[in-house]
Specification:
With 264 residues, this protein is of the alpha/beta class. Helices cover 41% and strands 14% of the residues. It binds adenosine-5'-diphosphate and magnesium ion. This is CobQ/CobB/MinD/ParA nucleotide binding domain protein.
Length: 264
């Protein structure tokens, strides 16, 4: 937030499967490994971000109790009371709930309904507990995602290097323009994910993205790597699963790009 040392980055793309949760989890781990204090917020009812760090049993336990994002937002509570430590140093999480499916309904009757998340984060910002807050968004463009965007300084948009990877992207940029008076969030960059060198969609995707004025595309891109899925299956970041794997190095490189972005 403006005047505060914490940088809040959200991961949005209304297209599901573009790599939002994977990027959010692995970038957070690499930032934390680089010594940054990082808070993750799992904003999606699919619980994928929570599952990236905890096994299914624990994630369901967190989702079913009242100590999660859904209850905090519904009751407009200070989110600093909902922080869970991950097994990793410098890396904390606010877990989600499957009840997040009802959050649009809960927000509907609230006053200043677009800023509820931002207000719930206020004390975390005031105490300057973190260098980065990373928020994983669901693949929708409703009031909840507006809340996420209103709480964010920056947006990272992961897009899959595939024939339909860019489908709907223009809508998303229009959506961001449409709410530009409500939020100062700016696009930090588009990240090309799931690149398969046997196909030529990477080149095609980068060429099309170059046609968008004023949209930064990260130099770093992420290859398709089965280690990503194995890591997720084991609820660990890809660097913990296999440090030498290609995607682990790419997420480290992305973390450097993100840290440098702040100092430019
Ligand atoms: N670099 C990668 N290599 C292989 N599989 C990947 C990679 N990135 C993401 N995936 C897989 O693609 C699927 C969608 O990724 P995910 O991060 O869940 O997307 P989103 O959050 O945008 O829906 C997941 O099953 C995930 O395991
Ligand atoms: Mg996701």
């Amino acid at each position: 937030m403006a005047g505060c040392k914490t940088k809040t980055i959200c991961f949005t793309n209304n297209k599901g499967g573009s790599g939002k949760s994977t990027t959010c989890a692995n970038l957070a781990f690499e930032l934390a490994s680089a010594g940054k204090k990082v808070l993750l917020i799992d904003g999606d009812m699919q619980l994928n971000l929570s599952l990236s760090f905890f096994d299914e049993e624990r994630v369901l336990e967190m989702a079913e109790c009242e100590e999660n994002l859904y209850y905090a937002i519904k009751n407009k509570r200070d989110l600093s009371g909902y922080i869970v430590h991950t097994p990793y140093e410098n890396l904390d999480l606010i877990p989600s709930s499957t009840l997040m499916s009802q959050i649009e309904y809960e927000l509907f009757t609230m006053i200043q309904r677009e800023y509820v998340l931002k207000k719930c984060l206020r004390s975390i910002y005031e105490k300057e507990l973190y260098d980065y807050v990373l928020i994983d968004a669901p693949p929708t463009l409703g009031t909840w995602v507006i809340n996420i965007l209103c709480a964010a300084d920056y947006v990272i948009v992961p897009v899959e290097a595939s024939p339909w990877g860019l489908f709907g992207l223009a809508n998303m940029f229009d959506f961001l323009n449409g709410i530009s008076e409500m939020t100062e969030a700016k696009i930090m960059g588009v990240l090309i994910t799931k690149v398969d060198e046997r196909k030529n969609y990477y080149k095609q995707t980068r060429e099309i993205l170059a046609g968008y004025d004023n949209i930064n595309v990260f130099e770093t891109f992420i290859h398709v790597d089965t280690s990503v899925e194995w890591a997720q299956d084991n609820s660990v970041p890809v660097s913990v699963y296999k440090k030498s794997t290609r995607s682990a190095k790419e997420f480290q490189q992305l973390a450097r790009e993100v840290m440098d972005y702040g100092s430019r």
